[in-house]
Amino acid sequence: MNKLWYVVHTLAGSEHKVKANLERRIASMGMQDQIFRVVVPMEETIEVKRGKKRFTKKKVFPGYVMVEMMMNDRSWYVVRNTPGVTGFVGSGLRPEPLSEGEVKVILRQTGVEKGRPRLDIEKGETIKVIAGPFLNYTGIVESVDHEKGKITVLLSIFGRETPVELEFSDIEKL
């Protein structure tokens, strides 16, 4: 039997509680050889409040927890009957595992595999430059590259709209 990743639906706001409860149940019921990892998918974002930048963690999939396990009747029972769990994600009677590709993307995005922080900003929004040679300029977001941690902004330089590539850490959202 292969170990695969499954998604478990939880009560709203209780993802971390479910993770702790499930880890305790795994230890107390001796299921370490069948249930391996429990992950609450989180990603780091940059939040700017009152001109101060800070890194915060946000849930990628609120209401869901990922569990790496070998699916059998006993492991299904342990997870399904953990307080706060409302069920497995999947169609029909049996839970459906995530594909390898989906797991890699989610783990990279959540920092389990190293990634970059995300900035909660979209094309068309207005930003202010807070560092570097364009300090105090304001501009319109042209594109956002979360992988590289860079953003392209249209700044008015000498009366012309000029695209400028900036780091996430050099800007704040207006």
Automatic annotation (TrEMBL):
<keyword id="KW-0889">Transcription antitermination</keyword>
<keyword id="KW-0806">Transcription termination</keyword>
<dbReference type="InterPro" id="IPR008991">
    <property type="entry name" value="Translation_prot_SH3-like_sf"/>
</dbReference>
<dbReference type="InterPro" id="IPR043425">
    <property type="entry name" value="NusG-like"/>
</dbReference>
<dbReference type="InterPro" id="IPR036735">
    <property type="entry name" value="NGN_dom_sf"/>
</dbReference>
<dbReference type="InterPro" id="IPR014722">
    <property type="entry name" value="Rib_uL2_dom2"/>
</dbReference>
<dbReference type="GO" id="GO:0031564">
    <property type="term" value="P:transcription antitermination"/>
</dbReference>
<dbReference type="InterPro" id="IPR015869">
    <property type="entry name" value="Transcrpt_antiterm_NusG_bac_CS"/>
</dbReference>
<protein>
    <recommendedName>
        <fullName>Transcription termination/antitermination protein NusG</fullName>
    </recommendedName>
</protein>
<dbReference type="InterPro" id="IPR047050">
    <property type="entry name" value="NGN"/>
</dbReference>
<keyword id="KW-0805">Transcription regulation</keyword>
<dbReference type="GO" id="GO:0006354">
    <property type="term" value="P:DNA-templated transcription elongation"/>
</dbReference>
<dbReference type="Pfam" id="PF00467">
    <property type="entry name" value="KOW"/>
</dbReference>
<comment type="function">
    <text>Participates in transcription elongation, termination and antitermination.</text>
</comment>
<dbReference type="Pfam" id="PF02357">
    <property type="entry name" value="NusG"/>
</dbReference>
<feature type="domain" description="NusG-like N-terminal">
    <location>
        <begin position="2"/>
        <end position="110"/>
    </location>
</feature>
<dbReference type="InterPro" id="IPR005824">
    <property type="entry name" value="KOW"/>
</dbReference>
<dbReference type="InterPro" id="IPR001062">
    <property type="entry name" value="Transcrpt_antiterm_NusG"/>
</dbReference>
<dbReference type="InterPro" id="IPR006645">
    <property type="entry name" value="NGN-like_dom"/>
</dbReference>
<dbReference type="GO" id="GO:0032784">
    <property type="term" value="P:regulation of DNA-templated transcription elongation"/>
</dbReference>
<feature type="domain" description="KOW">
    <location>
        <begin position="120"/>
        <end position="147"/>
    </location>
</feature>
<keyword id="KW-0804">Transcription</keyword>
<dbReference type="GO" id="GO:0006353">
    <property type="term" value="P:DNA-templated transcription termination"/>
</dbReference>
<dbReference type="GO" id="GO:0005829">
    <property type="term" value="C:cytosol"/>
</dbReference>
<comment type="similarity">
    <text>Belongs to the NusG family.</text>
</comment>
